[in-house]
Amino acid sequence: TDFVKKRNKYIKMRQKGLYKDDLRCQRNNLPASHLNPTVEKFYRDFAEHPLSETAHHLLHTHHYYVRGKLNMKGERHG
Amino acid sequence: MGVQKIATFSPSEKTFTGGGTFLPGEVKGIIRINPNKCVGCDTCRHHCPAGAIKGSLGVTHHIEEDLCLSCGQCLVNCPFGAIEQMSFLDEVLSRLKDPDYTVVAIIAPAVRVALAEEFGAPPGTLTVHRMHAAFKKAGFRIYENNLAADQTIMEEGYEFIAKVKYWLLGDKTPELEKFAEHPLPHFTSCCPAWIRYAELYWPDILPHISGAKSPQQMAGATVKTWVALRLWNIDPRKIYTVGIMPCTAKIYEASRPEFKSAFYWLKEKGHLPEDTPPFPDVDAVLTTRDAAELFRCLNINPLNVSPEKETDITEVYTGGATIFGNSGGVTEAALRTAYCVLSGQEPSSWNIEAVRGHTTGVRTAKLAIPLKPLGGKKANFHICVVNGVKNHLEPILEDVVIGKSPFHFIEVMNCPGGCINGGGQPVNPMGTSWIDPLLPLPLKA
Question: Which end of chain B, N or C, is less packed with Cβ atoms under 10 Å?
């Protein structure tokens, strides 16, 4: 429909903007996450390595809830 | 031109009481339909991924809070501007004025290609250094949500690699034992509306979903620990973190009661006085529209400030991170890093067009990655990118539940196109100008 076409038009325009930002980062030698110097420093000085104990505490969640059963016992998956 | 103004309202006491499908403290009722403006055109119901909107054609509609994902797709698609958003702008403005607090902006990727629309520029106009300068001028320090997206890739990527080792390569060493409870396919966890959708409607899928937090939540927990203690030397209790998000469901995500990990970690390590009350990792969330309103309140036009290069290492991010805002972006970012880690070499091109969602509902791809531990033998990975929960997700979940899913990795983004089309983004008249040709009912006089 006309609506979907117009919506798709601005979706594509915004997506293009992010791919442009991606290419800018690639030109600055920052194409992929493991090459981010701040991430490197974060692990070197603080969190040691991905999935470490510190990462486990701060960067991972252990709480997905079965929302339909909240009233019964707050069932958890994690 | 110009974007449509969306009405906002402040939270009330009822907002945090929990009940129904909400835990105490969780923000509910973020999206509401103004009954005085709704003409019952039924458009919103067709965009709601959760069947949470009730009301028949021609009759004022309403949202069933307990079923609602807070994704805001109804809001951005309402042709009459009848749907309103809860806003925490007043709270953020008052914190900015308080000299005791360091207010930190955690800026999502999709904001930088939409914020400019609020100031008259076309959709997709990229602002990075101008946007940073504007937030600094408003009194924020910046922790790039894109930097947190890079952290997410490290954590989620290594988690996925661990699952591959356990489930595909048969590595049952003790440190991989916990992945016995987390089978493939692996689902991404960045989209809070998708998480709530799974929690409400597909609980069988929950063990498949990555345990890595979303970038917003990683950012909040990192700012109040590593950044506060080691980089900026400030008291974590005096930090106020603000997610700047294209998303209304992020408001809800930040309020989930388990996301107080910085508090518990700091407490355990003795960095907090005994009587410190628990505080959240992310204190408030503003949508892109709220952020624009904040700039207007402070007489800042992000298009007219002079751009500032990164001055702080907390502003540095990669290309993999910035494409998180597009459908397929999380997958592409994960694959870029996974390829390097698994193969021990760099890919010939960083661009993986095959997983980009664009405006296609579901994209699937097969990728051959050479595995270093197997002497470079190639393994095929089957990838699926779900671009919009509505209409596209259910058949894929059904296959997972009956154990017939062909995929190893599934990305789910609730909003069509990804976060760039989120419920907190500027509402562009390009999306609403269809009123005349399609309107099923005559306008109310």
Answer: C
- How many residues are present in chain B? 445
- Among B132, B138, B53, CA closest to B89: B138
Residue B331, min C-alpha distance to chain A (Å) = 12
Q: How confident is the model at residue B71 (pLDDT cuts 50, 70, 90)?
A: very high
Q: Is B308 a catalytic residue?
A: no
**Residue among B224, B221, B210, B100 nearest B163 (CA):** B210
Q: What is the pTM of this model?
A: 0.94
The span from the CA of B46 to the CA of B48, in Å, is 6
Q: Give the whole-angstrom CA distance, residue B308 versus residue B294.
A: 20
Question: What's the complex ipTM?
Answer: 0.93
Is B253 one of the catalytic residues?
yes
B325 closest CA partner among B111, B158, B142, B13: B111
Domains with residue ranges and CATH for chain B: 8-85 (3.30.70.20), 89-147+215-318 (3.40.50.1780), 167-209+320-421 (3.40.950.10)
The per-residue pLDDT for range B333-382, each reduced to its tens digit, is: 999 999 998 889 999 999 999 999 998 999 999 999 888 877 888 889 99
Contact B206, B200 (CB under 8 A): no
User: Distance (Å) from the C-alpha of residue B66 to the closest C-alpha of chain A?
Assistant: 9
Residues 27-66, chain A: which have Cβ within 8 Å of B? 30-39, 41-43, 45-47, 50-51, 54-55, 57-66
Name the 3-class secondary structure at B187: strand
- The phi, psi pair for A3, rounded to 5°, reads -65, -50
A11–B416 C-beta distance less than 8 A = yes
Helix, strand, or coil (residue B145): helix
